[in-house]
Amino acid sequence: MTELRESRLRSALKALSWRILATTAIIIIAYTTTGNIDMALEIGFIEFFIKFAMFYFHERAWQLAPRGSIRQIFGVKKITKK
After folding, report:
1. Is 67 inside any structural domain?
2. Sign of the torsion formed by the C-alpha atoms of 32, 35, 37 and 43
3. What's the rounded Cα separation, in Å, for the pair 73 and 1?
4. Measured between alpha carbons, how far is 53 from 59 in angstroms, rounded to an integer?
5. Residues 51, 64: contact at Cβ < 8 Å?
6. Theoretical Cys-Cys bridge with 59: which of 4, 11, 27, 39, CB 3.0 to 4.6 Å?
7. pTM of the predicted structure, to 2 decimals
8. How many domains are there within the chain?
């Protein structure tokens, strides 16, 4: 069985694309809540970098787990295609 691993670049690009979407939502929420665009952008800026790093390292940590090992830990059988 060939193991599929994501590259570091793919993990970083996934983190970047998700953070752009999620940070836009945070900025909108912060602006709606505070009515202050400067504060909303500051919150979004801080949130972007913290959560980008958290997502990237979370993705890389999951790459360390061999494929199928989580199913084995929890005793879940793999569904096979017919």
Report:
1. yes
2. negative
3. 19
4. 10
5. no
6. 11
7. 0.62
8. 1
Would you call 64 helix, strand, or coil by DSSP? Answer: helix
What's CA 26's distance to the chain center, in Å? 15
Residue carrying structure tokens 């940070």: 23
**Cα 58-16-10 angle, rounded to 5 deg:** 65
* 19 contacts 48 by C-beta, under 8 angstroms: yes
Within a domain: 81: no
Taking the CA atoms of 60, 66, 69 and 71 in sequence, report the sign of the dihedral they define: positive
Token pair of 30 as six digits? 């912060």
Q: Is residue 3 part of a domain?
A: no
Mean pLDDT for back-to-back runs of 10 residues, the chain (82 residues): 72 87 96 98 95 88 80 72 66
Residue 36 structural domain? 8-74
| Contact in structure between 59 and 13 (CB atoms under 8 Å) | no
Question: How far is it, in rounded angstroms, from Cα 32 to Cα 53?
Answer: 26
